[in-house]
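During the first year of the project, the team set up a workflow for recording each protein of interest as an amino acid sequence followed immediately by a discrete structure-token representation. This format lets reviewers and collaborators read both layers of information side by side without switching files. As required by the reporting guidelines, we include two representative entries from the current panel. The first entry is reproduced here exactly as it appears in our internal archive.
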Amino acid sequence: MKSQVTALGMRHRAAIGITEETDAVAIVISEESRRIALAMRGQLTPPLDVATLEDMLMLHGKGSGA
């Protein structure tokens, strides 16, 4: 059985990796399913709708001093 991370595509794994090493936030859109996910602090959210993604980005931006 594959772990959750190895079952993901390359873009999803890259998004998780970059957010483990930096304070970046990555938005990932699946080519196959068109689902949107957000990677932060090495974690990937479940699929998000656009409104929830906007809310999460606004919250993250306020916390970073932007």
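The second entry, processed by the same pipeline in the following quarter, appears below.
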Amino acid sequence: MTRAWLAVIVCGFSGCSAAGTSDRVSCDLHPPGETVENCAVRNPDGSLTVSSEVLAEAPFGEDGLSAVWIDRELYFVNRTGKTARAFYFDNGPDPVVEGLARTIRDGKMGFVNSELTEVVEARWDFAEPFAGGFSRVCVGCAEQREGEHSVMAGGKWGVIDRSGSVVVPVEYEEGSVPSPPTPGR
């Protein structure tokens, strides 16, 4: 896995509020910290599009994604400038695993593909990265700090597949979630 996006684009911490039909956003490249005016636009629907000038400088990974900070939130950005809010993990955006990365929308977690299309609806309080085609998800869990790290605790847990279908009901305590069913058995 290549983490080429460690140099991220930082968009104005003081801008990015939706005003009128669209809002131009200024950015600071990080590193080296150069300010780029009008690096992105907030569209009338609230989505963000990054400018081609900034995309030319963005470090894209093998998955075709880079990252941008906007209003203190981390976003994935693809080569067309489309964005999707990224889950901040281990000092950067969540990695793409099995073709999907975790995304945040309206305080809930889901998954996007490398085109930044939400393929698993953001409806979970937390979701683990996919492994073997499945992700453990929870409802009602909350982050608990353990020193410099965090864990998710409480709530009810279950398992979804890559389409977002629940394959193990979300009704188990965190440590007692059964394995997902094996096809053909």
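For the second entry, the following points were noted during internal review. The helical segments are 52-57. Residues 65 and 78 are 5 Å apart (CA to CA). Both points are flagged for discussion at the upcoming steering committee meeting.
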